[in-house]
Amino acid sequence: GQGGGTPPAAMIAQSEILLYYTRLAARRRTAPGDDVISLLVGSDLTEEEVLLNCYNLIIGGDETARLAMAGGLLALATYDKEWARLREDHALVAPAVEEILRWTTPAAHVGRIATRDAELAGRRVAAGDVVALWTVSANRDEAVFDDPDRFDVGRTPNRHLTFGHGPHFCLGAQLARAEIRALLAELRASVSAITVTGPVTWLPSNFINGVGTLPVALA
């Protein structure tokens, strides 16, 4: 969490979630199904690794999705012509979801350990080096995105790295996408104008990239 620690109620809720997954994993070991929990318990993962991956399913589509939705709302309020485009054309919902994910990039960076010697953009990386991969920078890469500092709800293709890549691809990606789609559907159905009504603050973190407070009026 940010700032002054985790409130007791949140710690209790976290413990309850972990206990729920512990019991669910135990049931799936004796009676597996075709769900993701059964796949995890049937793998080579340890019991602790199964539990942590289950927990990642929740947080992967929770905090980062919430921050993406808040940041997306701010972007739509700021770039009202893009909001007008989105309101008028349902076909733009899917690319708008991806553009919100690129634009907001809730997880600013990830850490990795190099498995072998390599050279990247003229820089030597030795096996065992710890490197920081700045996703927030990659998602504004001029070599990949046309006019990367422009918020474009119709941007296609959109090869953002918000969810990572390869074996570390975010487990909660589809849940996050579904949540953002649901938000956009509700906004398109019920809202014509989005107006920021006060100061916007940002979370004091170089890892979690997102809005702390966002006062808005929906009309």
From TrEMBL:
The keyword Glycosyltransferase does not apply. Transmembrane segments: none annotated. InterPro entries: Cyt_P450 (IPR001128), Cyt_P450_B (IPR002397), Cyt_P450_CS (IPR017972), Cyt_P450_sf (IPR036396). GO terms for biological process: cholesterol catabolic process. One of its GO terms (molecular function) is iron ion binding. It holds the Pfam family p450. Keywords: Heme, Iron, Metal-binding, Monooxygenase, Oxidoreductase. PROSITE patterns: CYTOCHROME_P450. Belongs to the cytochrome P450 family. This is Cytochrome P450. It comes from Nonomuraea deserti. The lineage of its organism: Bacteria, Bacillati, Actinomycetota, Actinomycetes, Streptosporangiales.
